[in-house]
UniProtKB/TrEMBL annotation:
InterPro entries: H-rev107_PLA/AT, LRAT_dom. Keywords: Hydrolase, Lipid metabolism, Membrane, Transferase, Transmembrane, Transmembrane helix. This is FAM84B protein. One of its GO terms (biological process) is N-acylphosphatidylethanolamine metabolic process. One of its GO terms (molecular function) is phospholipase A1 activity. Belongs to the H-rev107 family. Gene3D superfamilies: endopeptidase domain like (from Nostoc punctiforme). It comes from the Eukaryota. Residues 29-127 form the LRAT domain. Coiled coil: none annotated. The chain crosses the membrane at residues 133-151. GO terms for cellular component: cytoplasm. It comes from Branchiostoma lanceolatum (Common lancelet).
Length: 159
């Protein structure tokens, strides 16, 4: 019995000109932070992808049409000069992680880090996650500063 996702997944892969070992990205709704976010996966062929499932904190193999679920899917090329594994090795690395659990972290342990690791052996490419982390810390510091100023101002009004 043919799976209902086989044909749409193969058509989507053909439309993207995806080859096994390619990294793809798509928009998905994240229940953990209740927002739309970019998700990354490794296309492993036959209409399937391997990706880090942020919701369940493990690596899974799914139909491309299942994970993309109508969102805009696009191939992702590495920026800069990086040594990458062969496409066959990328697929082997990705499929070798299926079923493994990882602790999720928006900055350092997510679908993009997983896909980067499969392709290059390095989780962080070009400091994107580090920049996100630093911006997050800056936003927290700004909120704390403003809250402190507000509470100090309120205290002055009472006296």
């Amino acid at each position: 019995m043919e799976d209902s996702h086989l044909k749409p997944s193969m058509e989507l892969a053909e439309e993207l000109q995806a080859q096994p070992g390619d990294k793809i990205s798509y928009q998905t709704w994240s229940r953990s932070d209740n927002s739309l976010s970019e998700h990354h996966a490794i296309y492993v062929g036959q209409g399937k992808v391997v990706h880090y499932n942020d919701e369940r904190h493990n690596v899974v193999k799914k139909w491309l049409s299942q994970v993309a679920a109508g969102g805009k899917v696009k191939p992702v090329k590495l920026k800069g000069t990086f040594t990458t594994f062969s496409q066959a090795e990328v697929v082997k690395r990705a499929e070798g992680q299926v079923g493994r659990s990882y602790s999720y972290d928006l900055t350092f342990s997510n679908s993009q880090n997983f896909a980067n690791w499969c392709q290059t052996g390095k989780e962080q490419i070009g400091g994107t996650q580090v920049k996100t982390y630093i911006l997050g810390l800056g936003a927290v510091a700004a909120v704390v500063f403003l809250l402190h100023r507000f509470l100090k101002y309120r205290k002055c009004l009472r006296t």
